[in-house]
Each structure stands twice: as C-alpha cells, then as structure tokens.
Amino acid sequence: MTNDYAMILQQDLAHSCEAEGSNFRLAVPVQARAHFQEGLEHFQAADPAAAVAAFSRSILHAPEFGEAHIFLGLAHALTCNIYPAFDHLEKAAELQPDSFAAHFTLAQLNFKLRIPQKGARERNGIARPSFNKRFSRPALIMAGSGLAAAIVALIVHIH
C-alpha cells in the first residue's frame, strides 16, 4: 500500500513539474529543466544510473531546485548510494519545508533502512495544510464572532 502511494506521489510530482504554467516552468532555468526532463525519462524507464547523471546536471544549473533533489535522492537510493540519497532528500526538505513529497520520501527511506526514530521525526515534520494547523486564540475568537454574525444575519433574513 505504501509503495503504491509512494509511486503515485512520485508520478504526481513529475506531472506537476511538467505541467504548462507550473511554478517549476517559471522559476527553473531552461538548461535545468531540460536535464530534469531527461532525468525523468531515465527514471521512468527504470535506468536510475542515467537518471542520477541527468538530475545531477539539472542541480548544477539550479542548485535550489527542490524537485530535482527529490528525484536525485530517489535515483541514488535505487543505485544503492544511500548517503548521497539522504543528502539530497534532506536538502529538498530544507529547500521546501512545506513539501509533502520531500518529507514523505525522506521518512520512507528512513523507515526502509530501519531508522525509525529519524523516520518518525521526518513523518511528524511533514508539512500540514494550513487548515490543519493550530489556531491562535485571537484568530479563533475572530472566526467565532464572524460565524455568530453570519448565523444572526441568516436568522434575521429568514424572519
């Protein structure tokens, strides 16, 4: 189940990077995009060694490119280069602290290598959606008073 979810997550990340008008297309230099696309082709063709080379070239052109670090970490893991895999996945999580894919992939690698305390720490650090974070007291009071005002307006409108 987790492997299926991880594969879907990786495919979704790849498709979102390839989509027209995505932030990826706007913020990443053309050379880095070209090498990233080449790396995705090798990655999807089950050639992780060639993917490592292509993703590495992508990072040379755009060192702050988080998605390339994620896929480079995955490709390193598939070629049994565990330490570079950790380095790139940790870099991706550092570059994109709100990236579910970066934190999930790093946690998954930690769990697979039987390092549960690091995996649990990373799993707990997975970015939560803003609606799932704790609210401050003033924000709750303001939201509650707005809800109360809406209910009063609805009651007055009905009568």
What does this structure look like?
This protein is an all-alpha fold and 159 residues long. It has two domains: 126 residues, Tetratricopeptide repeat domain (Serine Threonine Protein Phosphatase 5, Tetratricopeptide repeat); 29 residues. Helices cover 77% and strands 0% of the residues. The protein has nine helices and no strands. α5 packs parallel to α7 and α6 runs antiparallel to α7. The radius of gyration is 21 Å and the shape is elongated. The protein starts with a helix and ends with a helix. About 4% of the residues have low confidence.
Main β-sheet: number of strands, strand sense, barrel status?
none
The gyration radius over C-alpha positions equals 21 Å
Helix fraction, binned, reads over 70%
Strand content: under 5%
Q: Structural class, from secondary structure content?
A: mainly alpha
Shape: elongated
Rounded average pLDDT: 76
Number of domains: 2
| Strand runs, count | 0
Q: Which H/E pattern describes the elements?
A: HHHHHHHHH
Low-confidence segments, given as residue ranges, are 127-133
User: What is the terminal separation in angstroms?
Assistant: 53 Å
* CATH fold-level assignment of the largest domain: Serine Threonine Protein Phosphatase 5, Tetratricopeptide repeat
Tell me what the CATH architecture of the largest domain is: Alpha Horseshoe
